[in-house]
Amino acid sequence: MFAVGVNSSVKDFIEAIKRPDAIAAGYIGQFIAKPFFGFLFGTLAVTTFNLPTAVGAGIMLVSCVSGAQLSNYATFLTDPHMAPLSIVMTSLSTASAVFFTPTLSYLLIGKKLPVDVVGMMSSIVQIVVAPIAAGLLLNRFLPRLCSAIQPFLPPLSVFVTALCVGSPLAINIKAVLSPYGLSIVFLLFAFHTTSFVAGYHLAGTWFRKSADVKALQRTISFETGMQSSLLALALANRFFPDPLVGVPPAVSVCLLLPKAPPVAFISALSMNCFDYSLSNVT
């Protein structure tokens, strides 16, 4: 989250103001469509796949968090000119998670497992808002220092991610490798894929008359399909007594990290093929 602040600026937010329609579409994908799919697949996990209730709650929790910074990198690979918008959408959805994540968690999971809404909001402020604010201030007043540390942030983020993911996976390795471990992977893969597709078609319908509709479709698709699973993991470890709640967020991180580059590559490849065929026609 600190890296989001360091890589953002006031100018990025000014750019976002010029595309309020895109931000609104991103919010619908993030906090309406995605939680719906999370509730759907979380319910299927319990009713159809006979998984523990805590696993279903973990899938729902993944759907309640904000977008991941990974979507910014994917957008940069496919549509570099859309990267500032993607960063702003992720930053705003992350800041909004102070309200949306505990509210959605209460609505979707509250009746299944105890959820400390007030404590969760306080935790999100500490995990999300404070680091982003610190990064923005550092970027604003100490730009040289930001430029010096920026090359080290990606590998540091990967290292921290490995530590965060490794612990819950090690604790719950029997659950992940159990017969229902494959079911968790399948359900989360289906959840993320459905979210990608929903975001893509949502933007296609919303911006069908826009000149940059394809770029917006890819950007909002990444924003909808890639969640801050580490935030869900941190919340699961802190606020849910059953450690199984943390398994879906941990598996989600492992799925998204290798899945994002191929999705971005395929999107970029299809875009280049379309442009090539169009040039041949003309």
Automatic annotation (TrEMBL):
Main location: membrane
Keyword Transmembrane part of the UniProt annotation: yes
Subcellular location: Membrane; Plastid, Chloroplast envelope
Protein's membrane topology: Multi-pass membrane protein
Keyword Transmembrane attached: yes
GO cellular component: chloroplast envelope; membrane
Pfam family, one: SBF
Transmembrane segment boundaries: 36-62, 83-108, 120-139, 151-171, 177-200
Keywords: Membrane, Transit peptide, Transmembrane, Transmembrane helix
Family: Belongs to the bile acid:sodium symporter (BASS) (TC 2.A.28) family.
PANTHER family for the chain: SODIUM-BILE ACID COTRANSPORTER, SODIUM_METABOLITE COTRANSPORTER BASS6, CHLOROPLASTIC-RELATED
Role played: May function as sodium-coupled metabolite transporter across the chloroplast envelope.
Protein name: Sodium-dependent transporter yocS
Species this chain originates from: Aegilops tauschii subsp. strangulata
Upper classification of the organism: Eukaryota, Viridiplantae, Streptophyta, Embryophyta, Tracheophyta
